[in-house]
Predict the 3D structure of the following.
Amino acid sequence: MNLRESVGIALGAIRSNKLRSFLTLLGTIIGVGSVIAVLSFVEGLNRYVTDKLLSAGSNVFVVDKWGLITSQEAWEEARKRPDITQSDADALSAGMRHAALVVAQDFTQAPVRYRNHVMKGVAVRGRGPGYEIIDDLTIDQGRHLTPFDDQHRRAVCVLGPEVVEDLFPGLDPVGRSVRIGLDTYQVVGVTKAKGKLLGQSQDRFATIPARTFQKYRRERGSIEIAVKTVDQASLPLAQQEARNILRGRRHLGPGRADDFAITTSDTWLDLYHNLTGGIFVVTIGVAAISLVVGGIVIMNIMLVSVTERTREIGVRKALGARRRDILTQFLVEATTLSVSGGLVGVAGGVGLALLAGAVSPLPAAVNVPGIVLGIAMSCLVGIFFGSYPAFRAARLDPIEALRWE
């Protein structure tokens, strides 16, 4: 009996016992579908987070007081550090040779009001010149903030499109005045929509010049400094330049630790992968249990099939079939059952991931290596759990099998 006949017999058994076949394949379908869905979500999330973190370019780093805080001890230590100030930003801008942009930035939240319309919980950003490159913002109406606005601490702002839609329905906001917190600002520009990041709007903000932010802010605190280097190759050199300048300003001698932090997009990507790596492994492990259960069910069904077809096996052996032929036949049948469930699981997992990505903020992307892995896993499950029934069928004595009723 050739491979084609064995596959045909297996498919015929599936068609003739539809309910039993479905219940047999259910574990494999759920296991493979879960693995594919998880891999699709992880792939989509990885692409999404990487794209957002690198939106300003991989050659950007941030200097701030805190850095990456992962423990209470690190938080307590960071609190003792001196604040990063506008003068630090000015010093970096004047002294760094490998920096294309040095942007002072700060933020808070405040209500924004236009006449009788009030929008609460708006992100108010203080940004220095070049912020539109760092924040990856494109102007839609009016203009961006300029170095002149920042140097003269002008009371002007650029609004996100969500704020404009809420406060200025049917109106042109450019040139109008809004109140941000307790102060009045003239709207000079509106940015294009960027959508949501993990369900959070990126268009609900008001950006004002950094020096204006510091002038009108009622609470003083540390700022951040975003530095974009001239190219990727100069990123380490620029970081060392920034470190040398700030250490000199703070009179830190050799051997003393930095009292500031420098973080890059890679810092946050590493943290993201560390946080999600364990969750990913656990989820795949849970999905793999379904595959094992599905494999056990396939083994039980194949044992039942061997019992039901004992006389058939005896007839085939009497006609010259070898043990290897019987073994191959039942292995092919078990593998066909498992792979059929795997294919259905792949289709279901991809469909579930794409559907969830369409109706929710969860990103999803088809993971081709994951699809190949799912099919390979289902194939291995069929071979592994079909081996015992196949060996049992192959070892049947033909005389005893012919007597079977």
